[in-house]
Design goal:
The chain is mainly α and 432 residues long. It has helices at 3-28, 34-40, 49-59, 65-88, 101-117, 120-153, 159-165, 172-182, 184-196, 198-209, 213-216, 224-241, 247-250, 291-303, 308-327, 333-355, 359-381, 383-388, 390-415; strands at 156-157, 277-278. α6 runs parallel beside α12, α12 (224-241) packs across α16 and α16 (333-355) runs parallel beside α19 (390-415). It starts with a helix and ends in a 17-residue tail after the last helix.
Length: 432
Amino acid sequence: MNRRNALWIAAGVVALGFLIALEIAARHYGVRGPITNQVREVIFPPKSGPLLYASMALMMVVLTWRQRFVAAGVAVGIDIVFALVRWVFDIHTPHGHGFGNGALLVILGCAVIAVTRRTGQDRVLLLKGVGLGLLLVAGRKTGDAWLLITSKTRPLVLDPYVATADHALGDPSWLVGRAVRATGTVGAHVLDYVYIQLAVAAVVVALYQLRHVADERRFPRHHLVRTFLVIGLLGPGIYMLFPTVGPIFVYGADGGHWAIANLWPETAPVLQTPHAIPFDEITPRNCMPSLHTAWATTIFVHSRRGPRLLRFAGTFWLIATLAATLGFGYHYGVDLIAGVVFALTIEAGLRSLARGWDRAGIQLVAYGTVVFTALLVSYRYLPMEMARLPWVFGPLLVLAMVSVIYGYARTTRLWEPVSAPAQPAEAQPALA
């Protein structure tokens, strides 16, 4: 067994152990864990049908075109059968989509085919495709379990600290919130769709990156899905260290009697010494950093190498996601700054891991880590100073984020292969 295969096996064992630990933790709080929820979706209505079909699309990058058409047809056929059975027996699906089971069954069927009907490199490639598809699904279920744990284990939230620090940026959540409300239902529906279907957008970019896998019989060293999953794995750990729920809950109507006041988005909170406050055991502590911003940033970064339409889509998804996170009151402005730094630091680390660590990569990851840590520390211990001197700390926050963006762009540009200049043609002797 070579070193690369050993790493794959070790990663699989760690991932399985992590899922089992989350399953046990969720059961401790009286709810189903990620493993149980995923197994249920083989039969029961899935929480997200589009995500399951997006996962199947990722898996199909290892198949031939004929095999893709067969797999897609089988998935749709199974879903039609499921829909007919639910209609005949009057089975309602109020808490899930009425489709998606077929896609999950096709992914699992391909795993069985890989083990029983494939050998050698063909088996390895198909299993990698299945693993890629299941990782996206498992990432969603893992995230749900993580969010439950944050709400149960962190009774106090630090929103007053973040809201105070956000004065340095001019309270952008309140500004964008009023702007989104002014657009009416159309603008809200568009932003809501963008916000919810972020994973599907990531799959579209990933499919472009992985379009040659079936022909080349191998995956590229680095692609979007790797960064997407690592952000989802590490982000909730920061939630545990810095629990916040968002302005719509602490300063808005969605917080109910737990809210400090019903101010969002009309009136920004007054400046006063912040302190941790208790909150319910239902709302996830999932604000710091903004992982939607982090994911949208990686989609933008990875779409830069695509055609013009894909680059346009990546830019639109980033802008719309930023507008949604602020405009719906899910995040403060400082969350977004932390999310951008978080995303680029992880992206730099994974790119360095794929290509081999060098001095530039180490420096970039170290710098991004220091900036991210400094941001969180300042939000927690310097919010009053930031609010009282917005013309100092506001530009400093933006400058810190821009410095990481510049460092990432400059470093990755050095990593790009340099094309050799075309050699001039040698002069040919004239014919007599």
